[in-house]
Amino acid sequence: MDSTTNSKAGAGVTKPNTLTITDNRTGKLYELPIENGTIKAIDLRQIKTDPEDFGMMTYDPAFMNTASCKSNITFIDGDKGILRYRGYPIEQLAERCSYLEVAYLIIKGELPNKVQLEEWARNITYHTYVHENIKKFMDGFHHDAHPMGMFVSTVAALSTFYPSAKHFDNPEERAATIHRLISKVPTLAAFAYRHSIGMPFVYPDNDLSYAANFLSMMFKVAEVKYEPNPILAKALDVLFILHADHEQNCSANAMRGIGSSRVDPYSAMAGAAAALYGPLHGGANEEVLRMLDVIGSKDKIPAFIKDVKDGKGKLMGFGHRIYKNYDPRASIIKKLADQVFEVTGRNPKLDIALELERIALQDDYFVKRKLYPNVDFYSGLIYQAMKFPVDMFPVLFAIGRTSGWLAQWQEMLLDPEQKIARPRQVFLGHGQREVPMLSKR
Ligand code: ACO
Which of 64, 79, 280 to mutate to test the pocket of ligand 1 (most atoms within 8 A of CB)? Predict the structure, then answer.
């Protein structure tokens, strides 16, 4: 068994790296190994009141304190406001790298060198086109279909176009799927938008960067070549970096959980994107803008805050399960907003957002609960200034997060300790009952 030296207790005093549990029901003592600050939940199963007893389990709704995997991808220290991908601080990655470099890092573990980056970018660029039948599929949606609903369904539909993707144990097949998904998500996202406004689909322009090509597919009208403003293209690229991964959040957990059934990765990613769609997760950026619309002007903020404190709704874009100090992504986005607004003009809702933040951060309710602006609080203001409609916001999040989902999925596949995800339950329903005949009910 592991042991650890306790320096406070004096030099040379080693203490076992174990946890001793006394079961007061039986008086028995159990010694469980501690590894990486955790005990294995399955080690609790030996704790029984009698041989018939199933054994002790942990009860952890919403996984508040359960590690479901070992991971090398993303590190977050929620108290200190730290976010790192593969050891690199998010601030440095946002400043020094492109999204494609970061996607490579997240998926492969190291930053690419020049040659590796060129090959990676070429692979991504060559897969941006989608089958013509995907266009027909998307045409079938109602004109006012939510683009995230279209995105989720179309990602799932891709599995029918690439049936060989289920052979993901073959590294080449897995790599092809990873290239396809990262390259096609902007195309699907832009097609969803174009369909919703009744405009023809714009095919990818492979001369442009990842973010610039996406802007071209979104906004090109009659010009021969669409040249997006480089500041806006760069800002979008940074937003993709900030959204690329966030360890075991709701959608990453969905990607791993669905993928653990060994379904093809397109189907798993459709499930992850559906998880992201919810207003408590990636749908929050959309809700922030709707909330700012409802508030309408700065003088209405105190009344709005009072309603939130009275339990009549949430301050969207505030609070996080992990960050209890500040969300480092929100700080980067706030600075990015200034650069974007220099080009687009100031989003008038920014003043309401800034005042909302100022008031909330002084209010005991938010201070006590450690509620700070999260990534979604300011990202929507930038997206809106760049002319993205509000219902495209979660889709933009999904584009950046695709690399993270794929990295999490691949790590799960290659982890020999992982199996099909299957939580336990605490059953509190009826014991066995006799079924009465219909006439007796
Ligand atoms: N506005 C008002 N009160 C809040 C908010 C908020 N945004 N967030 C949490 N609280 C309150 C809760 O009501 C609770 O109060 P109580 O202790 O009096 O019951 C307390 O703060 C703790 O909140 P929980 O819901 O227990 O925190 P949890 O970790 O489960 O939830 C979550 C985190 C879902 C992000 C939550 O803060 C929230 O709903 N925020 C608004 C939605 C949002 O912005 N989501 C985006 C998250 S970032 C992302 O997914 C990319």
Answer: 280
- The single residue of 205, 237, 376, 391 carrying the catalytic annotation is 376
pLDDT at 1 over 50: no
Amino acid identity, position 40: K
319 lines ligand 1 (CB under 6 A): yes
> H or E element: which one contains 82?
strand 82-85
Q: Residue 106's closest CA among 400, 420, 394?
A: 400
Could you give the C-alpha distances from 355 to 184, 338, 341, 359, 362, in angstroms and in order? 39, 16, 18, 6, 11
pLDDT at 11: 59
Dihedral of alpha carbons 284, 290, 294, 295, sign: positive
**Catalytic residue status for 320:** yes
pTM, two decimal places: 0.92
Cβ of 400 closer than 6 Å to ligand 1, yes or no, is no
Say if residue 349's pLDDT is above 60.
yes
Kindly state the tokens that stand for 400. 């950046």
Percentage of the chain modeled with pLDDT above 70: 97
Positive or negative: CA dihedral 294, 299, 305, 310: negative
Which of 179, 320, 327, 391 is catalytic? The answer is 320
How many Å lie between the centroid of ligand 1 and the Cα of residue 317?
Answer: 9
Catalytic: 376?
yes
Task: Give residue 15's Cα distance to chain centre.
Answer: 39
Q: Is 127 noted as a catalytic residue in this protein?
A: no
How crowded is the C-beta side of 163, counted as CA atoms within 13 Å?
1
Compute the half-sphere exposure of residue 303: CA atoms within 13 Å on the CB side of its CA: 7
The token pair that represents 90 in the structure block: 């998010």
Structure tokens at 188: 């699907």
Q: What are 381-397's pLDDT values in tens digits?
A: 999 999 999 999 999 99
What's the pLDDT tens digit per position in 416-440?
999 999 999 999 999 999 999 999 9
**Distance from Cα 63 to the centre of ligand 1, integer Å:** 15
